[in-house]
Structures
1.
Amino acid sequence: MEWSNIEPETVVRNIGNLFLYDGKTPMLFSSGLFWFLFILFLPVYVALKKSKAKMTLFVIAFSLFFYYKSSGWFFLMLIGTSLADWLISWAIFKTKDRRGKLALMWLSIFLSLSILGYFKYANFFLWNWNAMVEGNFQPFEIILPVGISFYTFQSISYIVDVYKRKIVPTKSWFDYLFFLSFFPALVAGPIVRADYFLPQLRKNLSADSSMIWGGLWLIIIGIIKKALIADYIAQYNDLIFNSPELYTGVQALMGVVGYTMQIYCDFSGYSDMAIGLALIMGFRLGTNFDSPYQSRNLSEFWRRWHISLSSWLRDYLYIPLGGNRKGTIRTYVNNFLTMLIGGLWHGAAWKFVFWGAMHGVGLAVHKACKPILVKIPDNAFTIFFSWLLTFLYVSFLWVFFRAADFKDSILIIKNVFTDFHLWQFPQFFQARTMWCIMMIALIFMHFVPQQWADKLQLQYSQAHWMVKLVVFVLVVQLVVEFMLAEVQPFIYFQF
């Protein structure tokens, strides 16, 4: 093509289209367009940092544009939600009557859950009602706004904390909109608490060198997890889950273990990038994953997996239900209900409810067995056995999380236990050599002691800029070598 044949109008139109919402290609942290825009965003952000008001407005504008590119015109609903929250929070704060405060809190929660319920659960409940009455229901054409579950939980925790006098409402609506729309955590978490985040906004501190380089390191790790490992191993995992009837027990087991690692890399990789971006901007979002597959029981797993969600469920659901304060049986029931609701939060389908319920059962069984477990001595065998039992329980429950339906889930698990032959492992390794190498490397990295990981991050932060550049170029080259033709969406975008 000759440059003289290219019309200026076409160039302008194509550039303009980059800034319009396209439902087929929502903006992701792993997309080139995001990083191009973030590189343009950063120097302006730094220049405006000294003026909190200007910085706040600029970040809000960028965050809303980011959400528009991710979810279209639903960014207007986010603005409306933030305004309603802010007005109700001040009404709660100024109301003297306790019952009036309580009524306002529940009004806000009702509004938030009603919006979430319509977009996420309307068709689910109507489908089930239709099945009971044997009607002819046609599902509504409802588009789920990206990240609605995450910012809804942030909205609810803010209102509840104002009601409990844990925090004071923000003086400015823009401060609250900044908190709710903060783009690193907007579409897939972590779920940020107002009492942790808003004091940072008020102080408006700039990032020091350790935060900047530490943030860049987390971004690199996140890209490796998501764009390199998760997207690559997903290619095989998808084959197993899309057509489970075609594969043997060994192949099915590898798919189960593969998805177990894929969902960890996908979600923790996104969280690493989000936390890293926030650090570069001078904000801390906290830790969201802490090597969860090192856990030796389910209770420990949920202290390490998706920490922002599990702590939210604990503080705003489990404890208000009574926690462990109302007897043993009630503790088990509260655990079960919390995980059941946590499962439904993940998706509007019975498979998610079952997934959450079984985690609730597992937690109850673990608590019931504690008097016996504490008497068993800790040695290499018991440590390994408890880890293996926990890992297998979590992994096989991920099957219900990923498979299309219960039928496929049962078929995959059945294949593992009825069509399993050890002699197939060498054949599998020969056929999927790179996949196996990635899995082995991933498992090794997951079990590296935390102090080693911290030391490696410190060495990177203190290294010469040429070393940092070489590391970055190597990561980009690896991603280019292994990446798919299209950027794969994050698994948790659907939640």
2.
Amino acid sequence: MDLTGLPHALAHLLTYHKEEPLIFSSGLFWVLFVIFMPAYAFLRRKKTQMLVFVIAFSLYFYYKCSGWFFLLILSTSAIDWFISRKMVQVESSAGKKWLVALSVFISLSVLGFFKYANFFLWNWNAMVEGNFQPLSLILPVGISFYTFQSISYIVDIYRKRIEPAETWGEYLFFLSFFPALVAGPIVRAEYFLPQIKENRRASHDEIFGGLWLILIGVIKKAVIADYIAQYNDLIFDNPGGYTGFESLMGIIGYTMQIYCDFSGYSDMAIGIALIMGFKLNINFNYPYKSRSLTEFWHRWHISLSTWLRDYLYIPLGGNRKGTFRTYLNNFLTMLIGGLWHGAAWKFVFWGGMHGVGLIVNKLCRPFTSRYDGRKWFEISSTALTLLFVSFLWVFFRAESFEAAWTILGSIFTNFSPQCIVPFIKFRTLWIFLMAFIITMHFQPQKLHDDMANVFINAPWILRLITFLIVIQLVVEFSSADITPFIYFQF
């Protein structure tokens, strides 16, 4: 057996490659995690050693996702911690405000340079009709997520909601914590820092509850999202190349794909953290059950929507300055939330339309409230909300406005119902997976809780069988190419 190539193969496996990011649904991550956990458990009660070990693993994890950009996290954390300690020493309110402004300016400048420099230069170039060549910029994975954590940390210290982290190590642990590092949930320091101080072990229920969440997340991402994406990508990569019915199926498919992809990541992140003894807040709460757009944003990407509420909507005035300002603040918050998702006008449009939808929702509330509790109204309002959200997902996913309108237009101009039977025949598995996730999504919360409790309290052999079944499903459905999570790009 020739082992001469083994060192080179290991070196390739363990170093950064842009086309092979380390993601939760990859086999390499779970091999590393299995190695990580025994060492972590051994160091659990040795706080300093545990912090250093987890920070090192987190930074390596980020290196495997985004290369040498892990140095940005080190720099950001050092600046934040230094400013936070200075804020405690400065007595004047003006001095504290200047320090907050400095920290926020630095954080947003770094984010703006990597994420929005080319966007603004392209638009300036279009206005002056210049000959612009885009900058060769690579967007660091997850920069939007840890930037928002950085900002909330400094602002909460200014608001006296939290005390600064005692050591740089504690703050770096918080900012670089690998389960939530690259795609959230966005973690609040007031919720997480006390857990570092407590340094407690996970209970039996938390360990197996975390494992359950991981398995659910893997099914959502590696089995359902990645498989149905194969068809959805055909539709969005070739606008106008398919009939209206096929385009409609692609839109419905992407609506479920982005939910399974992102909520699957969140489930895995929360589950991994729970096994380690840390609690992260829920990030998705069956959003397509929502009966209004307001409720949708209480259920979708909860850590982002609450962050925008607390650090943007409320500082703008919230609902405290009259009806018009309330509507304007809603619109501006969603507009900026759209731009947060990506440096393109389609994301601004997506966010702005959600802002308009929220305004319409509030305007109609005095009329619609009289029908609360009636089954027909609940069903119709849920369907209307889902229709609106799905319509806007087209602009979120399509390469351009023109592509989005082409896909939507084909539904009304070239529906071709004769395609329905062949579609059912050749896309049977796609339809089955879609039906499965939609059915499970609309089940009562009690059923999901009962399933989790059965797994947590089951004999070890049944848990092992469940684990092996999930592994087999992943093997059967996995493609040759690594499919990063959709929100990695944000």
